[in-house]
Design a protein that fits this description.
This protein is α+β, with helices and mostly antiparallel strands. The chain has helices spanning 43-98, 102-106, 125-138, 217-222; strands spanning 2-8, 15-23, 26-33, 109-116, 122-124, 139-155, 158-172, 178-194, 197-212.
């Protein structure tokens, strides 16, 4: 590429035409005059000064780009770090669920936790605790629970994670038959940073799939004998 610059040499009132060849990978521009330096003894100094100024401008652009790239890299590392901290909180809740520890599950949540179900009903921290107690009472065995983060967005001291939780447990019927329950749920959770700890402040259920002995609830109920009167 060529850059045409015009300027007047100190030894002549006639305009000097400088042409510059440059490439995108090199910020320094090498200049040459269309007039001979013997005719314009100060033309070389003018070229040198212009070359230096363009070089400094190019260096500034490269430094600005480098700083911007560094900031993006640091932001990416920060997001990865916070995501890992929140993933650890999910792991704690999964472990507490396996141990039937209601307080342990709720330990990752704020006091004003709000959970919105698929039916649109909103439950507070106390109601969530009662639901967990009922679920643990119905379960004859808890095989495990695992939550994975599908997407993560960090905005200062607030983070939003879309997750998938898979739980497996056994339920006993009145005639003492065990039913294998596999529940897969998706939710959008909002986390807030309290001091140095991330706590869940809200959760919105997006999807819920539950299988009973590998069947949907409707299919499973068709296999059950009517209760005796």
């Amino acid at each position: 590429k060529f850059l045409i610059l015009e300027g007047k040499g100190s030894a002549s009132p006639l305009p000097m035409i400088w042409t510059s060849r440059y490439s995108g990978s090199n910020s320094r521009l090498s200049l040459r005059s269309t007039e001979s330096h013997s005719r314009h003894p100060f033309g070389f100094l003018g070229n040198l000064r212009l070359s230096y100024n363009l070089f400094m401008f190019g260096s500034l652009l490269h430094r600005t780009f480098a700083v911007g790239t560094l900031c993006l890299a640091v932001a990416g590392v920060a997001q990865a770090d916070e995501k890992a901290l929140i993933a650890a909180q999910y792991a704690k809740a999964d472990s507490a669920f396996f141990q039937r520890n209601v307080a342990g599950v709720l330990a990752i949540a704020t006091a004003d936790l709000k959970l919105k179900g698929l039916d649109g009903k909103v439950s507070g921290r106390k109601e969530v605790g009662l639901m967990l107690q009922r679920q643990f009472k119905l379960a004859s065995k808890i095989n495990g629970s695992k939550t994975t983060i599908d997407s993560f967005v960090l905005k200062g001291k607030t983070a939003v994670a879309t997750t998938t939780t898979r739980s497996v447990f056994m339920m006993a019927t009145k005639d003492k038959k065990n039913i294998a329950v596999r529940a897969t749920s998706k939710s959008k959770d909002t986390w807030v940073l309290k001091g140095s700890t991330w706590l869940m402040n809200a959760s919105v259920s997006l999807k819920q799939d539950t299988l009973f002995n590998g069947k949907t609830l409707e299919e499973f109920m068709k296999t059950q004998k009517p209760a005796k009167k």
